[in-house]
Amino acid sequence: MSLFFRSALLFGVGFLTVGLAAAEENAPPPRSVQSSEPNPASIPQITFSSVHVDGPYVAMTFDDGPHTSLTPKLLDLLAAHHMKATFFVVGQNAAEYPEILKRAVRDGHEIGNHSWSHPNLGKISDDGVRAQLRKTDDAIVAAIGVHPMLMRPPYGSVTPRQKRWIHEEFGYKIIIWDVDPLDWKRPGPKVVCSRILREAKPGSIILAHDIHPPTIEAMPATFDQLQAKGFKFVTVSELIAMAKPMPTKASASPPAAHVPSLGVSPDPARPADSQPMGAAPAQSPDG
Ligand SMILES: [Zn+2]
Q1: Can you give the pTM of this predicted structure?
Q2: What are the φ and ψ backbone dihedral angles of 284, each rounded to 5 degrees?
């Protein structure tokens, strides 16, 4: 065989190998997350408004605290119900009541960053956003000794570009919600309770605020009835750790026992940080 033919052969084999490797990379993942999205497994998920899980798990989240009397009252309730929750704290409150944060963590709850003074992050400069998050992260570390893993933008307002650099710089996952009882409007404990009961489904991230007395008043009945429906309460990070791929039509698993439905809200961060869908608005009157 001449040198030319040997080189041509080697080149051909090399080309074929590269070609196969490229084809493999472009092949769909073995267990597709959502068939409608292009290769979603390769896009790390930054934003969550709910999580696809295969059990009756939900995450209760409480924003804007800690509050000097209401948050400890809520912690008592959560302990009595053997529930875990997530608190998205406002930094200036966290700095004022570090003992409440310490207790929350001791009780098994999670702390997330909800900015220092609750501005609309979508409307302030990058440096302003950075200062809001940094000061709050520092206050949380001063109280509980560890950095938070999560942040929730006030009013759910954050641009796709901000999400990306916040995630890169702070490592935070951005947490929205899919159940919003609008408790900050103080519609009364019964309404808050019935709205949460009506909307909660497996994988839900439920929004409420531990700075409004009627919200805390609504919680005993809300917790009792959600537990009676079979729901189990975990922190947001625990819920995310339970994420399962979206079932394809052919391999949909049967619903778990005691679970009303397995519906799930689409993730607003994928595929391209498009507008949030479902019940989690980009800008809610509060968050
Ligand atoms: Zn808020």
Answers
A1: 0.75
A2: -100, 155
